[in-house]
């Protein structure tokens, strides 16, 4: 098979780029390791920057998102039993959109179907080749048949565990990583959310987050040790621990119910540089991940796709390759700002095991300062709604 752009990974990054390029007549193929059902069963992000929403509309995939997504003009930080509202709209002039990653991915798949885009599922042993030549290609296995895609560019949008980043020579790739000593236990339930806006709760027993996907679908998280497994947590144990970490007035309103999904996500920050090697371009989680605190992951993928899409357009429409040449540096500049913000919010709100008394007092003081200073809250709001791209 021959195409211009071979995209490895059919998650939000790969599908969004595929759709945008296709709309401009740039032929591309997506190779996804798993089935569509598997991809759509993953419960992940829910808070979108307006920049992401704008891209979805540009990709002609924004209709349901605009109809069903909820605009949130603020969120709460709970500490010492009190709720403090961060007025995103008032502080930054902007808001965020709450719309589940699962729904957004479904919209992208449906758009790809409508345009007869080529998305190949269950592609096994995907492997890019000859990335530092003008004619790279990608091989994969379809059941027992060996397949090959010849292309001009390869996009590595295959997430943190994908194959693309690993195909960059070790002598070229630099990796920076921070692993946090805890994870998030998440529960999805068909219950009315405890608060119309998200509640980030700091508590000596550990962090908690009350999030939502809609007014009938709640997503809650609690910080847990990395040694815990999902089997250690019955629904009852989860709900009672969550209640203990929330201010009384919030806990009293909490509607509990059976979990429809329960999982533990380790918290990790990671950046790979450069994001380009020859004709391979990395995008999204393939190049960088953040802890979910502050909701930067999917949103950082969106800015990569924005830069990459415009760089590809300039290359194919005007023969101008400066965007492709500058992609890695431009994307990484924003990626590192998202890393900084996620690290800051994670450090501010979590309980660190064995943290010295000095660090605990500093953490408390940082939060007190934040909540007492309009300027500090303005900086939080500016980052939370998303820096421009
Ligand atoms: C619990 C949790 C909560 C989160 N909350 C938020 C949030 O509120 N806001 C936010 O912005 N972000 C959030 N994130 C992060 C967000 O989900 C990711 O940043 C996002 O999924 C990145 O999209 P992606 O397309 O780059 O990668 P992925 O979604 O990982 O997609 C990569 C795709 O590539 C496929 N693939 C992998 N290997 C191969 C291979 N060898 N060959 C072919 N295909 C392959 C995978 O099957 C997958 O479909 C959260 C993440 C988690 C885990």
Describe this structure in words.
- The chain has 389 residues and is an alpha+beta fold.
- The chain has helices at 12-23, 36-40, 50-58, 63-68, 88-92, 101-114, 235-245, 248-253, 297-318, 322-349, 357-372, 374-384, and strands at 5-8, 28-31, 47-48, 70-72, 75-79, 82-86, 96-98, 118-120, 124-129, 137-142, 145-150, 153-156, 174-189, 199-201, 208-214, 217-224, 259-273, 276-277, 280-282, 288-289.
- The mean pLDDT is 96.
- Flavin-adenine dinucleotide binds at residues 8-14, 31-34, 39, 44-47, 101, 123, 126, 157-159, 161-163, 186, 265, 284-285, 292, 295-299, 301.
List the helices and strands and how they pair.
Elements: E1 5-8, H1 12-23, E2 28-31, H2 36-40, E3 47-48, H3 50-58, H4 63-68, E4 70-72, E5 75-79, E6 82-86, H5 88-92, E7 96-98, H6 101-114, E8 118-120, E9 124-129, E10 137-142, E11 145-150, E12 153-156, E13 174-189, E14 199-201, E15 208-214, E16 217-224, H7 235-245, H8 248-253, E17 259-273, E18 276-277, E19 280-282, E20 288-289, H9 297-318, H10 322-349, H11 357-372, H12 374-384
Parallel strand pairs: 1-2, 1-12, 2-8, 5-14, 12-19
Antiparallel strand pairs: 3-7, 4-7, 5-6, 9-10, 10-11, 13-16, 13-17, 14-15, 15-16, 17-20, 18-19
The structure holds flavin-adenine dinucleotide (FAD).
Flavin-adenine dinucleotide is lined by residues 8-14, 31-34, 39, 44-47, 101, 123, 126, 157-159, 161-163, 186, 265, 284-285, 292, 295-299, 301.
